## 1
Amino acid sequence: MDNFNLENIKRDFERELNQAQSEKDLFELKGKYIGKKRGIISELLEKIPSLPQEERKTFGKEINILKNYLEKKISESFENIEKMKSSLPKMDLTLPGRNVFSGKVHPLSQIKEEIEDIFVSMGYTIATGPEIEDTYHNFEALNTPEDHPSRDIQDTFYLDVENLLLRTQTSPVQVRSMEKKRPPIKLIAPGRVFRRDDDVSHSPMFFQVEGLVVDENITMADLKGTLLDFYRKLFRKDVSIRFRASYFPFTEPSAETDLSCVICNGSGCNVCKRTGWLEVGGCGMVDPKVFEFVGIDPEKYSGFAFGLGIDRITMIKYGIDNIKYFLENDIRFLEQF
């Protein structure tokens, strides 16, 4: 065995050391080169007695130098791996994995989509319009006079630009649709609306959907039948509705719609205040004056309109007692849906 072979062993060791990626690789490398039983260094030491007397001392010394070098390099590699491990975050691999919350559709969006699906199945189209409206489409064209309380600054968010405001209802979408399209018209207008109102059941910003049907010979019976069919599909039970006389500038006659309580089935509970009924929205026959604003002949055509709050319906369906939960983005609340 000569110096040339020892240099080859050293080069092979350094190449394999550079390729080692883990403690397991280092242990295998250590056993291969400096293992006590079958290591390359041990095999070299066993060959010393077979060498000529004058070569034994020199060759033994060179083997020991190589052995010390190999041990040093392996030890340094082990230390480097330990340093790298200590710099990593401490982790208990025996702990069970955490459930990853992937997110869900917001309950308001769920109900909005469900409402849209029901009306689309009944032949309605979905119409949209601007959230920043002018006073004409939000009030005048809906037969709302200048002295009407809803136009007061305490109720409406007016913008600095003259005659512009945040829409208080989605009814302007109906007006804009009637300006562009002639009867028959059958649409719903879902979207955000804004009013100066703030308590546990009202929010300055909330979601609403309004419906409009215009054609020949449309009656109040068509309106009631439509809403009854809708609420039965939405709540998936045989509910009842009733109309109470009311007033809206853009419908005549007008009515408030009450729904038999879906919590107690009309027997009386805290949700319906022991009445057995829940107020869910307004409705009525389109006032002929509204048709005149949009150029539809009120002598030939009639129509009905209705509106309901998506937030209100969602609160009823899921038993939610505070509208502000919808805006807080609390995962503990949202993950229930």
Note: Strands lie at 125-126, 132-134, 164-166, 185-194, 205-215, 241-248, 251-260, 277-286, 302-309.
## 2
Amino acid sequence: MVGLVSDDGSRSAIDLADHLNSYMVEPISRLEGVGKVQVFGSEYAMRIWLDPTKLKYYDLSPNQVVAAIRAQNAQISAGSFGAMPAPAGQQLNATITAQSLLKTPEDFERIVLRADTDGGLVLLRDVARAELGTENYEITGYFNGKPSSGIAIQLASGANALQTAELVKAKVAELAEFLPNGVSYIIPYDTTPFVLISIEAVVSTLVEAIGLAFLVMLLFPHNFRATLIPTLAVPVVLLGTFGIIAALGFSINTLTMLAMVLAIGLLVDDAIVVVENVERIMHDEHIGPLEATRKSMDEISGALVGIALVVSAVFVPMAFFGGSTGERYKQFAVTIVSAMMLSVLVALIFTPALCATFLKARSHNRRQGILGRIGTAFGDWFERNFDRVTGGYAAAVRTAVRRPCR
């Protein structure tokens, strides 16, 4: 929403609404991405206030008044000079332009409603009062107690909200140079910051998810190659999800961004589960990455598909809600379900291929060099303490099971 405010009170809401209609609505409505412009106010209009008592006295009806105004307030061609037929040798002709429409309230009040046979005239001012007002009085606006008027700008279908908002703000700032003295423009309502905040939240969540996945894979398997696999899997799923959103005609808005935030936390888990299970099999059974990957996928493929189906069963019904609720949450449901399905496909196809390609069988020899010794020392320290915490937790659970509270 964009509004005009009379800072010094010298302009009325009618003046501001007329300025919006006359000078700002058309330039803004032609901008790329603008679908509809609604003005909260009307242009100037000549108001004719009829007096019923005087109409009855002169035996006139409102229809007769309307007919007289239409007949005498008309655009009439005034003709031209030098038009045919013209004398021989005539070389110049010119069109005559005349202002035949009435302009002021006094002009309207002099409209003749009836001419009597005795020469008497009944004028509009005899039965009515004319004044320059607004086309309708249904809307009046104030901003912080000052007269104001505004326009609501709606986005065209499929347009970029952020880009359209920037174009509108730039055009309004350009048109503001021609505002009357004592009038300034305001933007009291703008939904695009929420879209921008949602996009920033998605980026922040993506960075945090990849960072946590990196730390988890680095702390537990102690394998830098394993950290690259979830890092590569997440962008693939996100790009595929955006492709599905575009194919279905959905836009990037607060609902789709919320779905992406939730989906990022879920899709990271699939890649981590696959990599950790492959690492476990390689460590326990001392086999190569290709054989470990095949065995791992035989064990967890059903679990991955089951998790995706369970999550989809929660969100899919939201896409079939009726009314405005269904229209709002359809994009949310489709986005998160698409991300989950793509995450499972990546975990079943892309992630195993990366595991078989990137991972290497563990060597029992310690790494050489300063970085290798530091990494090995940290890994040994972490594993000792983690095993200690795990053993203590297991002992506490066993004790609690054996000695239940009564």
Note: Residues 364-374 have pLDDT under 50 and may be disordered.
